[in-house]
Amino acid sequence: MSFLCLVLLLGCLCSFVLPDAQGDALYALKLSLNASSNQLTDWNVNQVNPCTWSRVNCDPSYNVIQVSLALMGLTGTLTPRIGVLKNLTALSLQGNAITGNIPKELGNLTNLGRLDLENNRLTGQIPSSLGNLNKLQFLTLSQNNLNGTIPESLGNLPSLINVMLDSNDLSGEIPEQLFKVTKYNFTGNKLNCGVNYPHPCASSNTDQGSPHKLKVGLIIGIIIGYVFLVYLQYSCEVDRRIAFGQLKRFAWRELQIATDNFSEKNVLGQGGFGKVYKGVLADNTKVAVKRLTDYESPGGDAAFQREVEMISVAVHRNLLRLIGFCTTPTERLLVYPFMQNLSVAYRLRELKPGEPVLDWPTRKRVALGTARGLEYLHEHCNPKIIHRDVKAANVLLDEDFEAVVGDFGLAKLVDVRKTNVTTQVRGTMGHIAPEYLSTGKSSERTDVFGYGIMLLELVTGQRAIDFSRLEEEDDVLLLDHVKKLEREKRLDAIVDRNLNKNYNIQEVEMMIQVALLCTQGTPEDRPLMSEVVRMLEGEGLAERWEEWQHVEVNRRQEYERLQRRFDWGEDSVYNQDAIELSGGR
Known about the structure:
There is one protein chain. By secondary structure, the chain is an alpha/beta fold. The chain has 16 helices and 18 strands. A hairpin with a 2-residue loop joins strand 12 (267-271) and strand 13. The longest helix has 26 residues, at 541-566. The radius of gyration is 30 Å and the shape is elongated. 38% of the residues are buried.
């Protein structure tokens, strides 16, 4: 097994890219089945790609095809939203205590070959919509509390070879076509077989065996099925198209044509990693093509590709999805979906006349979505991914103005040629944590600092460094500017004037408090991104803020004591402002 396969086995994600609907439907199933806190813990509502979730299997095109939740003690109901999984071929929920009806929406699963709901507490009638499942081979609804008649539509299923409806409360006649399947069992009901078949209509002449044999057979079958699912899910193919099915390797000429020869009129932005161009592929798909700079590593194609693949495994609704890449002896390019609402920085400070201002509810959603994306990179990836350049310009907005964090992993990507642990400092002044600036060593806490500055950008609409403030005050850094206004209780003076006072001052105060907690000078004092998410959701902020205020008061008192002790004046060789600017924030 290759190193790459091993990484995928141990990692938290796969590079599958699926519509949100599949992950949302499965998460809805988890909720409706009353899964406990220690069950299906990796079924995360914010992780839109369910192909890495336990008990879920996908095909090479990353469609969910098998779900196995047998023998888990689940007690809830079946959500109708399961009907979204149109590519599902096997659904196994036997051996639980599921109640309620069988959703008629199961009839939408036209690729279903096996449906096993045996030994639950299902009630109501068998939906006639199951007669739409033309590929269904195995139907097992035994040992439930189903009533009513067997739908005639089941007798018309062309692929059915095994139907088990025993031990229910069914009545009426059995559709004659069901006696032609290879195996059937209708015992333990109030059924009659119709005039053309002898009574009693127990089962096909197969060895039903003793209850003990049935249980053993069921357990063996479940074990074999589970092993097969695990094998399918975690086996690594040599063919890269299977291992990274949605990650495309583009030809240079293809991207050259898409961007009109990298025309300046198509430039969407420019940063420390290179220019980004708007492009249109041959199939009319709009893309953003990032042309990396500072990459002169000869023979580095394999290292670059490995890092690209590692970045591509991060799939989350608040992370920008990587479509593909291109390498030449002198060029490295990355291809992303085009975000039609551009970046948060653009919406805050670069709007064209007539374009709407980013309203306060959207800014709150951006804050929470960005936090969730970073939490995912830091705490749900193995190895963790550190962004190293968190700022409003790197948070993009999709068609619904939801936050999508871009450029994550690029700092590592352009430094793959480095052998030392400490790489050159990358980022944007004003957003860089003091310890990273002074030592070159980054961690997830440096991202937390950058996130805190981004929160201040959201609240104020201002840049992290603004020399125009020198005309009115000494605080060039946005962080110092906000700290001063917060101490003076002038919150209204902090908020972006473009909002025209259309905001909730309590929510503004909360966001500023979270920002200041994130931008503390000592990395260990800053919260984890998971804690940030909880604070933004209203949990634990008050206690943390009270603690911070106590520390901040002590720090300022010590600073003022030293100032009085040395009695620095305007002509001193020491400069107070310079010391503050170089210190931790």
